[in-house]
Amino acid sequence: MNYLDTAFGQLAFAWKLYNYGLEGRIDLAELDKPLTFQEGGMIFVLPDKVLDSPDDLIIALQNNLGIAFGAAAITLNRCREEVGVTLANPIQSEVDQFAGLAYQIRNAFAHDISEPRWNIDKPRYARRYEFGDVNVDLTNIGKKHFEYEDIGGPDVLFHMQDFGARFVWF
Predict the structure, then answer these.
(1) Could you give the number of structural domains in the chain?
(2) Which of 85, 122, 125, 169 has the fewest CB atoms within 10 Å, counting from its CB?
(3) pTM recorded for the entire structure
């Protein structure tokens, strides 16, 4: 619970940074220059150039966004665990549905945060989830690569955070 606001703040920041890049407002030459960090007894030198083109910048920003999304999803599920909400069988209440969906999104990212993949092999999770402002159909999702559209868009995770704050760890 201590890191939920930070995780979602990072997700919002990653989304804003991605948008900033899409608008062409990041100076690649200024950003991707030689850089040395010195702190205490540590010296860390970054490579002179890590991005070859504006397209590489957009890909890096997309990757950053995906990692931030996965970290927020993992943190959201961890909060569910910390307050003692278990994975119900059968899934019935809205809180049960929240817990099941949070767990499934977490699973998609926990095994490979860079290339998230659904892993819905238990029939009880292959279902429609409806709670609060969330309506997600994972009936036939199986083991495909995760896409934001699978859950109705990236904003759904923010709706889940709001639902959790109002009904799960209030």
Answers:
(1) 1
(2) 122
(3) 0.94
